[in-house]
Structures are given as structure tokens and as C-alpha cells.
Amino acid sequence: MPKFCGRWMIADYHTHTALCKHAQGDVEEYVRRAVDLGFDEIGCSDHVPLPGNYDERHRMTLEQYYSEYAPRVSGLIEKYRKQIRVKRGIECDFLDWAEGWNSKFIAENEFDFVIGSVHFVGPRGEEKPLFGRDYDKSELEALYEGYFLEIANSAKSGLFDIIAHCDIVKKFGKFSSARVEELQWEALSQVKKADLCIEINTSGLRKPELETYPGEKVLTLARDLKIPLTLGSDAHNPDQVGMDFGSAISLINKYGNGRISLFERRKRSEVNVSQLRGAA
What we know:
Structural class: alpha/beta
Distance between the termini: 34 Å
Number of helices: 7
CATH superfamily: Metal-dependent hydrolases
Largest sheet: 7 strands, parallel
Shape: globular
């Protein structure tokens, strides 16, 4: 069981930099923004490189990770240690065919937390990406079912500490059925069984759906299962650090007993979430 520390703190655990090729800014700009906002912790969590440079348009290479990103984060941990706790994280795509690669990569690096995410649905060669395209309404049933099956599998993999934006499939249009609701419950049950937390990701509030990932329907299931929560802006430029955290904190109070999960060397603790002092 994670310990409850009783302190009041705020953190943003989901940020990206220009190295992932679809964001802007150097990692230090994100750290400085978090300092300016009065945050207690900031997580550095660019995308894990994948074998064969799979999806290279959206992530750094392995060489870039070791030569640029990892040493840069290490330097900032020390540089800003008196102002903010900089946490070494990573966002890792769950892909069944890459489990061995991801497991080895994670084991070889001393992360504070590992965010698991699903951006591809379906077997390799037939995968449907959850970005860069639209889907017809007739495709939504299979897409939703496949997505929540993958969320369940990601929780069962044992690779992750946090499950990211766990209803992001809704960006393609709303869909519900008895089977999808069953799979949602099963996915969150696996998250609970694995003793993981889920993030309240505010990037959906910057998208047409104008709703956090997950929204209140999934957060209700999470509350029923007593799944812990954490915070992530999914910032793709420094100005997005902590964006819309006022809304996220309200959801933490409603669905997470006012507590957020923090991590150090992959050990989770819980603290009271503090109010914002300057975030947009």
C-alpha cells in the first residue's frame, strides 16, 4: 500500500518536448514554467523510442534518448533541486509485439514513473492509430472495443505505474454499447488489480471534445474501484504546463478524495492536492 503523506502538493507528470517531433520547446523551458507556477514537482515524460524506429515521426530515437534527453533531465534534476523536484519519467506505448523491448528499456533506466499509453489499436500491420486521421461512425464500435481491450492488456503487462488518457478514443466521436461498457469496467478492474493509478489529463479540454481524459463517466468507475489519480497536462509547449488544472483539481476532489499520487523511483505515495497559485 502506498503511504499517505498528508502534505499539500501539486505536480504535472505529463509533458513533451521538441525531441518527440510533435511538440515545442526544450525540457528546461517546461521546468521553468512549472517553477513559475509554484508547482512542487514536474515530470519529464517524452515518448519511449521503439524498435526499428517504429512511429519515428512522433518520438526520439534511442540514440537521442541516451545522448540528449536522459543527460539533459539528469542535469535539470540537480540544477533545480532547490526550487522544484524534477522527476524522471517516460511515456511508453503499449504494443504487445514490443513488450520485450519496452521491458528491457525500462529496466535499464532509473525512472521515477512510467506512463503507459495506447495510441494504436489492432495487430501490427493492421493497426489503427489514434492520431492523424478520422474514423467513420461505422468503425467506432470496433475501435472502442479494441481500445479498452488494449488498456486492460497494458495494465496486465506489469510495465507501467500510470495509465494515460484512458478514454482518448472518444476524440473520434461518442459511442456506447453494453459491450463497450463491459470492456471499460474490465479495463479499469485490471488497472485496480495491478495497483496502478490513472491520470486526469487536461489536454482534452484543449480539443473539440472539451472534456478531460478520462471524463466523468470513466472517473465514476475509477472512484467505485478506488483507483488513485494523478495529474498531467500532456503539455506540448511550455505554456501548457498546468493548463486547466483548476478543472482537474475539482475532479480530483470529486473522484479522488482530494488526493494525488506522486512517484519516486517507481514507489507511489499520496498527498493532498493543493490549489493553484498561478496556472492559466
